[in-house]
Amino acid sequence: MNSRKTFIQAPKRIGIVGGGASAALFVIECRRRLDPSIELVVFDPTSETGRGRAYAGPDRGDLLNVPAALMSARSDDPQDFVEWLKTQGRSESSFEHWPYVNRAVYGDYIVDRVNSVPFVHIAARVIAVQKENDRFALTLDSQAMERVDALIVATGYRSPDLSRDFAALVPVRDRVMISLDDLSNCQKSDEILIVGTGLTAIDVWRRVRNAGDIQVDFISRRGLFPIAHEDAPVPIQIPKLDTLTPVQILRLVRNLKRETQAGWPSLAIAIRAQVRAIWRAWEPRERRRFFRHLRPYWEVIRHRMPQGIRAELDHDLKSGRVRVMAGRVKFAQRVNGRIQLELGLKNSSEVVAYTCDRIALAVGAPIDEDLDLGGLGNERGLWFIGPPARSTLWEITALPDIREQVRQVVSELANG
């Protein structure tokens, strides 16, 4: 899906489907390296290119989970974001958990940078794509047609849908909070169940925590929280991993941890350098095994939280203000104005009754796969960047990974 694609003639018009950070990084990189006469057209129904779901909304203190020094939008200038913060009068002391900056501030940065270069924004959703000779014909939700010479699919994530993703919660949908903005409906006397224990769930918990003394419980299949970043990760040399199965890699990494006494964050950083090669080398059966058995454990060391946030979580867990369960929601109904649930807990055949006032769905947004590509895949002139490329690249959710992928795609375009 992302192999090299060459052109008989250089594209004169490039379409970008999606208007989040992936699209913005692509526009910024193109304007730095490609012929300025090439027209760049972003198709996205939102009014602003760059924020997407990740960096939208007012600043309520939600944090990036990557240090500011790694969040530049420019592949040629690693310090661009840090320098931009200085121009905005924001120093390290402006942020409680520096070097982890507020998401909304990062959204301001991306919007500022992408708006500093020329591109066209068509405020419409692309619903279907067809190939017409050497061009792509795009059908918009207005039924208008647009044609481009090259196409970038950067659709990112969609909002979770209860009927599609969590059918058990449909009977209590009026009490299920899907977006962070829904949390404003919480009352201080509420007992809240957060479904999920990853970074999205941590964002939800921090919002609830700041609202008052509210009892919060978490539930996820394994009940695992992300670990904290290290202050100074230790460089670790590891052998090539792309010839090994998931189980063999697990054994090797456990041995390395024992021999080097390194922390899990340092090991995760070392492994990440080879993740794409590993993913490409694995057969479908090995990928399925990874998903079924190892993915949750990889995610908690790969997607880490700031140390200060982890310390707050540990404090609340110790005090009992926060509790965590390993299991899943099997049934939900409204009883006397509250939510009555049946939970299936891990390593137990019993169904446990549980009652709360609200449920926050915080398992991370699904990848937006609603675009009808008409069977197109590895076509000349078609690229997938960011989350839509996950099937072939796997590790393509963090902005530094997307920035590197964008650099490679633009290199292919520049080289014809």
Number of strands: 15
Extract low-pLDDT stretches: none
What sort of overall outline do the alpha carbons produce when their principal axes are compared? Answer: globular
Largest sheet: 7 strands, mixed
Separation of termini? 17 Å
What's the order of the H and E elements? EHEHHEEEEEHEEHEHHHHHEEEEEHH
Using the coordinates above, name the CATH class of the largest domain: Alpha Beta
The chain-level mean pLDDT equals 91
Radius of gyration: 22 Å
The CATH architecture of the largest domain can be given as 3-Layer(bba) Sandwich
Strand order of the largest sheet: 8-14-9-10-11-12-13
Helix content: 25-40%
Number of domains: 3
Strand content: 15-25%
Helix/strand-derived class? alpha/beta
CATH homologous superfamily assignment of the largest domain: FAD/NAD(P)-binding domain
Alpha plus pi helix count: 12
Annotated CATH topology of the largest domain? FAD/NAD(P)-binding domain
List the helices and strands and how they pair.
Layout lengths: L12 E5 L3 H13 L5 E5 L36 H8 L15 H12 L5 E3 L3 E7 L2 E6 L4 E4 L1 E4 L8 H4 L10 E2 L13 E5 L3 H13 L3 E6 L25 H15 L3 H9 L2 H7 L2 H19 L4 H13 L2 E14 L2 E8 L5 E6 L1 E4 L20 E3 L5 H4 L5 H16 L2
Parallel strand pairs: 1-2, 1-7, 2-3, 7-15, 8-14, 9-10, 9-14, 10-11
Antiparallel strand pairs: 4-5, 5-6, 11-12, 12-13
